[in-house]
Structure of Homeobox-leucine zipper protein:
Amino acid sequence: MNKLEDQMALISQIYLGGYPQVAPQQAAESKPRRRRKKNKGGENNLSMTKKRKLSQEQVDLLEHHFGNEHKLESERKDRLASELGLDPRQVAVWFQNRRARWKNKKLEEEFSKLKSDHDEVVLEKCRLESEVTKLKEKLCEAKKEIQRLGERVDRGSSNSPSSSLTMEAMDTPFLGEFGLEGYDNVFYIAENSYNNIPGMEWMNMYM
DNA sequence: GACGTTGCAGCATTACATCA
DNA sequence: ATGATGTAATGCTGCAACGT
């Protein structure tokens, strides 16, 4: 009997024997999965098929080999199996399960690293946003100051030309008051014109 | 080249053991 | 006794190698 026939025979045996419960996920699919029978046989059957935990010594050796190489060639499997007094199939299964655990662990590690990176970026974003808010406030204050000074200049020029106060006449750059030394030209940038400055497009969001 | 068989890996799932 | 967790084992699928 070939493998397929074997499987079909098993399927029909199980279906004829009853299929008490299908997991929700499986039930939704067109193809039901085969359900394994519970191991509730007699004592002999139990001892034949009962799941046995590997000894610490066996696990240690398997771990050692897994550490060297995650893949298991046929020759190494047989050698390991006889060394451990296990069925080669058991060794293959152990490696398969171990690879799955290793993969899960790696995924978890990768996830926690990505999460911490993400948290850092979020933190930095908050910091930059608060900085932008502060700068916006300063900008607003500076604009008001310019307007106020402009009005004074206008009044002065209409009353007494000789006492006019001009921007050029100021002893020190007034912007220093706002901690914006060296940014004298910042107010000459027209609104929405940040699009023209590489890397500064985001500023328009705040204008 | 087409087809069947075999062996293996990956994945999902199940069943059992153990522990809190 | 029971639910959570860990893990050995099983079922299924896809793929590659090989023989016919």
About this structure: Confidence is low (pLDDT under 50) at residues 1-34, 39-49, 162-194 of chain A. The radius of gyration of chain A is 39 Å. Helices of chain A lie at 3-16, 24-28, 43-49, 56-68, 74-84, 88-159. The first helix of chain A runs from residue 3 to 16.
